[in-house]
Amino acid sequence: MQEIEVPPRDVFQHYVHVDQPNKALVWWFSTKRKNISFGLFFRKSSSCPPQLKSNTQAPSIASLAIPSPPVRTDSSYSRSFSQSPQAQAHGSPYGVLSSSPTKSSKASNYASSRASIDTLSDDDDHVSELADGQSIHHNQSSSTQPSARRKKTVVKFKDPDLIEILPIQHYNSAAGPVRGEYLAKEEGSYVLVFDNTFSINTSKRLTYFVALEERGQKVTAPAAELSGWLLKKKRKKMQGWAKRWFQIENGVLSYHKDPNGPCRGKVHLVLSTVTVSQSSNMIHIDSGTMLYHLKALTAEDYEAWETIIKAFKASEQRAVHDTVHRLTLRESSHKHLRNSWIGGTSELDQLKEMMSSMDAGFLDIKEQLDSIRAPDSSQKPPSGRDRQASTDNKIKFPKFGMPALPRTTSDASVASAGSTDAQSRLQSTFDKLKSDKDKAFAILRSEIEKWEKNDRQYKQLLAESDMSVSRAESKATLSRHALEEAYIAHTRTSMASDRSNSFTSSITGSDVFYDAMDDAVLTADLSSADLSDLEDPGFDTNGDNSSDDEASTGKEEAPDPEKCAPEATPQDLDEPIVRRTLLPAPVSGEDISLLSILRKNVGKDLSTVAMPVSLNEPINVLQRLCEELEYSELLDKAVTLPDSLDRLVYVAAFAVSGYATTQWRAARKPFNPLHGETFEYVCPEKGFKFISEKVSHYPPVMACHAESVHDWNLSMDSRAKTKFWGKSMELMPNGTIHIHFTKTGDHYTIVKPSTWMRNLMAGTKYLDHTGDLKIVNHTTRESCVLTFKESSFFAGTKHELAGHVMTANGTKKRALQGRWSESLMEEVAPNKLERLWKCNTPPPNHEKYYGFTEFTTSLNEITKGLDKKLPKTDTRFRPDQSLFERGMVEEADKEKLRVEQRQRELRKAMEGRGEQWQVRWFEKLADPQTEDPEGQTWRYKGGYWEARETGNWGKEVELWLGVIPPDVDHLVPPHIRRPSYALRGEPSEWASKIPINTPETIEGCRKAGQLAKQILTLGGSLVKPGITTTEIDRILHEAIIANNAYPSPLNYMGFPKSVCTSVSNVIAHGIPDSRQLEDGDIINIDITVYLDGYHGDTSATFLVGNVDKAGKELVERTQESLDEAIAICKPGVPLNQIGKTIQKIADRYGYSVSEQFSGHGIGKEFHCLPLIYHHDNDEEGLMEKGMIFTIEPMFCQGTAIGVQWPDKWTVTTADGGRSAQFEHTILITDDGAERLTG
């Protein structure tokens, strides 16, 4: 099979030489998207003209068959051997064009087709006469009629030796492979002509296959082919799965949207790594260029696909291994080639030594240059004690995972050395560097010549092996390119084995890998595996976990609760922070007419106008301030420079770099923060930490502060205003940026120009920055002014800026120029520029993700363990922004209105009480450098990082009092089966009848119930004073995931956690939080798991430490009521008897029963009928065999009236009395009830 590009107005000819008569020429071809014309010609002469575009020796059909074990048949995929009548008439003397509407996975690749081809004729049976009177028949098909305008041959060949067999006609080759065959009665060359001359501008991607078959031989169709429906995971995140038709032909897996549709993608199994997971019926195929995640619809389908892939992997790997082995041992010259590749490292070692020597030389030069600069005579060299003290006073980040950065100090004695001695040492070092450079270049030249020689030998070897590759060993599935890849991979493997004989893998034991080139199985740990003991190449049938073996014995063994959860260990504070590189969802929300909104607010400050959430990008203004530090390394470099003008130049580059990201961000605006909202960003990889807070609601003012281990700090208050001017919107930054270099004492201020959003009325919106960017070093009085030039539609260049760096007296010393979207350069000499800064390359598809850079993408992420350190006011906890980031636009819009309304109510309440809003982390101080009319600016007053360290945030303002629905994709691995509500939080509608469950459902609920029981036992073992309910939730969540189950409460109607924890006076639905359990508390832990499509629900109340007698009795008698209620359950008993029984026990002991909550049916759905009331009631309905439901009484010490918290979940007793609850899921049997969670 070959693939080529046929240019427009061109013809591609493929010649096949037939050396013996009575051979059948078979072919198939297809194109992508656009169709192509095809014809067949004959040349008596055995020689081919020199201008041929393609001339190959067609492989024999016998070399194409691949043996394969039989596999089972199922209705979800096709394994029928289907051929057209023409194909069945294989022995006829006529050429045949075959077509079969039934997709066949077992037939050979020339005997069936999804599309038929047809020559145009007015008769049903058209005969073309050949030179010798031989005829070829074409069977007409109505499914793919060539167009009338191409009824005649498109191309006329002037070559008199060419005889037309099939006239060139237009075929629907984009719809599927077009297949045909012709019986060659004469020796000579046969020409397959692919005509694209009718296309003026469009080239065609042509895939074709040609082979010769002995007419007398019986063709054995490869039995190892398979086709059927599979679920394929879409490429983009959160797009879900799509049902696609897959087929395997000759070791090539391809997929189609439907059985008769065009091929949408294909991979060679022999060159791919295959991973399977039997527990989830999933197959993962990685070809190196693309990755397919597939899921079988049934277990039978999975077994069939697994078997067929195993057969192909085994047979093809053997073929590749034999071919590569032959190529390796063919000639001694090639052995020398391989040895030259993996051996002979002495030259490379010498080169490495040279480079190390040169590095040492450069360091020596740096030290000598430093020694030339004599220190200021007025400064006293620091003593050893002073130097140690100054080092201790520098900012350190051990708790943020920041390793200590090495620092060097110049010794005063070195600085006082004479310049003559320094010059002589410099000259000596330069001479040594020159010598090392000459030696290194000589080694490199030698290596280049050696590699060029190897390349020539390798190409010659491939040319000599060309004929053998096309025979039986190649199986016709490995093209020349595939063989090259196989050989190179083999060589790499040999090279790797010389370097290292061990490796490790972090893949779980339930995954199995088939590696295309290694006779080895990659499982959980192969660091000490003996690969020679593996019998089946590239495949492991026992790769799944041991639960499959246990299941085969018919015994279900309950896992130990202590083994359900991973061991909880304190998080290593020095662990590197792993940041995301992609947002959870692409651009979300419909385009809204900004013009209609702006017309109503002409001349107003738009920061005070409520906007729809779709106008936003999922980032906050507080986070936008942090974006200024994306290129903080410019400040790091500036600090180290000895010349003040050099430092000013790099500060200017830093000021310009903050605009780079705005070139992709014109369409949307950041979220406006709430009053008191904060944002922190700790960046160990760049060496700084950042804190920002909204300090004023009106006028809106945001303040921020950053400090770095590289001896600089930055502070800023943003007082930007926005106004609409009819066709453009102006953003006017009134704040001042202050930068301090602690080492040099420099104090810089930066004042920014205005930003304009253009083309609001019509056209493509874009951002433009115009005006002067002013930077002043108040220590040296040096300054820099950069003028941002205005862009226009007709301007030849955009985003340009230029300016100068000036001394204290205004003399221009440095010239700068560039583009704020690309780079900034300094003119170091006439017509010579030195680049100071360059914009980073944006991530792939950045335009689909709001134009965010990787740095911006990470700002709103809650990394591992960060949620425990942040205050509740942090932007990452803001519900509307979090929802919008995940593409939940409607929910985000509702939350935005709710959050903003709560802010208004909070301010109104404070005004009513005469209270002033207290800014937590910043204070207003006099600032002579600011342009503020009051002469004041907001500065960081300290305390934030100390509070973060202790976790004591004091009294925090509740800004949102809402619940952010969890990010399920982040919390739950994709292989775990999820309920229908997992992503959107919306459960399905209840059925109108009480379900009577089948044995299959009962068994599924029993397994889920037993797992829920084990998780509950684990939860009870965690209960102790001092632990937080968040920690309990985390451990239990991990335990549920470890058992391949989904925590049912997670995102059920937006519930944010995996379990419910109701402490003391909480009746039900308590959300785990940071509150620590105290001695004397009681806590109910409610567990529901979703395992293999079924829910299991149970709960219990546990004692925390020393609980008083009243608390213990409340817990004991609640459990007693559950036991008594279960005891009366059997077929024929009224459902209301459960409530009557529980009510009697509550009355007996003087407790009240909550009537707000009830038991419920459960099974495939989390909640369904019947409803089980726990108080005295007269509801109708009788228990029947096969019913499954929960009983979960809640006793309260005082009143059972509940008060719901603003989180819309937590319900507490109105009088503060304690509440206890117990729950079981039960099954009504023939004569009683079975506790499925007991």
From TrEMBL:
Reactions accelerated catalytically: Release of N-terminal amino acids, preferentially methionine, from peptides and arylamides
Q: Which EC numbers does the record give?
A: 3.4.11.18
Task: Quote the cofactor binding remark.
Answer: Binds 2 divalent metal cations per subunit. Has a high-affinity and a low affinity metal-binding site. The true nature of the physiological cofactor is under debate. The enzyme is active with cobalt, zinc, manganese or divalent iron ions. Most likely, methionine aminopeptidases function as mononuclear Fe(2+)-metalloproteases under physiological conditions, and the catalytically relevant metal-binding site has been assigned to the histidine-containing high-affinity site.
Single GO cellular component annotation? perinuclear endoplasmic reticulum
Cofactors per UniProt?
Co(2+); Zn(2+); Mn(2+); Fe(2+)
Q: Which residue intervals define the domain GOLD in the entry?
A: 1-212
Binding of substrate, residues: H1069, H1167
Q: Which InterPro entries match?
A: Creatinase/aminopeptidase-like, GOLD_dom, GOLD_dom_sf, OSBP_sf, Oxysterol-bd, Pept_M24, Pept_M24_MAP, Pept_M24A_MAP1
Put simply, this protein is called: Methionine aminopeptidase
Its source organism is Podila minutissima
